[in-house]
Q: What sequence folds into this?
């Protein structure tokens, strides 16, 4: 059934305008992004089909260009649109983080880091540099690859903190496995970084691990 044959209250655009975006299902939101369906499927049916074969929005949004474009109703133009939407989301979260005192707003940190790190196939180690008011100066990926005492160099973190005139840091990295629990290596490198940075009076406020949809905070666990 074409969307134009549906009651106004069942059409995604009209429903969003009347009730707000939160009232829409994943399929309805995706249908607005798709705009049109394909022969035999309206936009909502196509969205439901894509969610069925991808299991989650995460799988769909993190598909490679080749994987994305090979799916029914998708192509290079939609891939470009999606990447633009995701990047706008990242930049919006960055602006929000810059406006807030991060250590007093952990949810803003989790949301931002989840957008930045979730779905990456390679482990990366990121540092958030904060000023004396715990507001974000900038973030930076310093290391790539498996995180352990051999691959994360405290000297480089110290140099970067001084270069960015940071008063405090939040450390973060991802676990591509999807399991956010800290390893023994994670705990050891956190301790080494705390000790190195303490020598120059820079506090490590937290170390956050992103795994799949979950975040683990060292500060909340009492590990820092």
A:
């Amino acid at each position: 059934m074409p969307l134009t044959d549906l009651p106004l209250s069942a059409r995604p655009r009209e429903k969003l305008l009347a009730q707000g975006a939160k009232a829409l299902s994943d399929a309805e939101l995706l249908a607005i992004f798709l705009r049109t369906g394909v022969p035999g499927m309206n936009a909502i049916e196509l969205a439901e089909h894509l969610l069925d074969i991808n299991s989650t929005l995460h799988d769909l949004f993190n598909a490679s260009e080749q994987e994305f474009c090979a799916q029914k109703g998708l192509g290079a133009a939609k891939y470009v649109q999606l990447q633009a939407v995701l990047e706008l989301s990242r930049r919006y979260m960055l602006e929000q983080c810059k406006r807030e005192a991060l250590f007093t707003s952990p949810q803003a940190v989790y949301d931002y880091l989840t957008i930045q790190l979730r779905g990456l196939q390679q482990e990366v180690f990121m540092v958030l540099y904060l000023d004396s008011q715990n507001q974000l100066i900038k973030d930076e990926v310093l290391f790539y690859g498996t995180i352990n005492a051999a691959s994360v160099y405290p000297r480089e973190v110290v140099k970067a903190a001084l270069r960015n005139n940071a008063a405090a840091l939040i450390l973060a990295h991802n676990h591509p496995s999807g399991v956010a629990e800290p390893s023994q290596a994670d705990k050891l490198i956190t301790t080494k970084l705390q000790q190195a940075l303490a020598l120059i009076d820079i506090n490590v406020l937290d170390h956050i691990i992103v795994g799949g949809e979950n975040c683990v905070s060292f500060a909340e666990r009492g590990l820092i």
Observations:
- The mean pLDDT is 87.
